[in-house]
Write a structure and sequence with these properties.
The protein is mainly alpha-helical and 225 residues long. The protein has a single domain, classed as Heme Oxygenase, Chain A (Up-down Bundle), CATH 1.20.910.10. 67% of the residues lie in helices and 0% in strands. It contains 11 helices and no strands. The chain has helices at residues 3-6, 11-18, 20-27, 30-36, 42-63, 83-94, 106-121, 123-138, 141-152, 172-189, 193-220. Helix 3 runs parallel beside helix 11, helix 5 (42-63) packs antiparallel against helix 6 (83-94) and helix 8 packs across helix 11. The chain binds protoporphyrin IX containing FE (HEM). The site of protoporphyrin IX containing FE has 17 residues, from helix 3, helix 4, helix 8 and helix 11. The site of protoporphyrin IX containing FE (HEM) has 17 residues, from helix 3, helix 4, helix 8 and helix 11.
Length: 225
């Protein structure tokens, strides 16, 4: 008998498999499909980018206090930070006074609040949110960038799509591999299976929070028939 079959799955496999269904749901949301299908105008893309700014502010403000944390600390890497890139994109999309009138949708506010709460009270939950966003940005985010450049004419990897460009990660595939190793290493710092399950559940919640944002964006930018 192949011994690999009897091995329990690694944590990175567990979290990826457990969130697979939610991933498909988020990916195939009406808003995402319309965005990737080139059917929305640049205002919808700008509105989406604004929502990301609120979420990443929560992720990256929250990261400060977690740098030394044994569970979340190893995940916090400066090369992932996105807020500065989002701000450059927003200045391009909305103009120099991009902050004026910037508003979080209710679903975005709820999402950011949950990230903040995890950052303050539960490092394992913070990791679930970190994984859901940054590994996604390094993966499907690249597809979104390509489509955005083509649809709205942004310069390749330039203003408007800098959020998707990780200048300091030369080899995203290798980075993702090492990130998955960090996830697998949680076995040591989080030996409790129940706590690991809670982290997986938080990841599913993170996907659901993203889907809720897409739903509200979809309502704001319905396609004219
Ligand atoms: C249209 C939108 C999307 C597309 C086309 C897409 C596409 C992909 C693809 C192709 C991968 C696999 C990459 C690989 O195996 O290296 C991936 C992974 C991932 N995506 Fe997405 N995705 C989208 C939306 C999202 C959203 C909204 C989230 C969550 C906020 C997300 C989170 C993730 C995560 C966490 C992974 C890593 C899975 C793992 O290897 O553990 N994706 N995505």
């Amino acid at each position: 008998m192949d011994s690999a079959i009897t091995q329990p799955p690694t944590f990175s496999t567990l979290i990826r498999t457990a969130s697979h269904e939610q991933h498909t749901e988020a990916e195939s949301s009406t808003f995402m499909s319309d965005l990737l299908g080139g059917r929305l105008d640049v205002r919808a893309y700008a509105r989406y980018t604004e929502q990301l700014w609120f979420v990443y502010r929560a992720l990256e403000d929250g990261a400060q206090a977690l740098r030394e944390d044994p569970v979340a600390g190893p995940f916090i890497r400066p090369e992932l930070a996105r807020v500065a890139e989002l701000e450059r994109d927003l200045a391009h999309l909305r103009g120099a006074d991009w902050r004026a009138g910037l508003a979080a949708l209710p679903a975005t506010a709820a999402y950011a609040a949950r990230v903040e709460e995890c950052a303050r009270t539960w490092p394992g939950g913070y990791v679930a949110h970190h994984y859901t966003r940054y590994l996604g940005d390094l993966s499907g985010g690249q597809i979104i960038r390509g489509k955005a450049e083509k649809t709205w004419g942004f310069d390749r990897k330039g203003d408007g799509v800098r959020f998707y460009v990780f200048e300091d990660i030369a080899n995203p595939a290798a980075f993702k591999r090492s990130y998955r190793e960090l996830l697998d290493g949680l076995d040591v710092v989080v030996p409790d299976d129940l706590e690991k399950q809670r982290i997986v559940d938080e990841c599913k919640r993170a996907f659901a929070l993203n889907t809720a944002v897409f739903r509200e964006l979809g309502a704001e930018f319905p396609l004219s028939a």
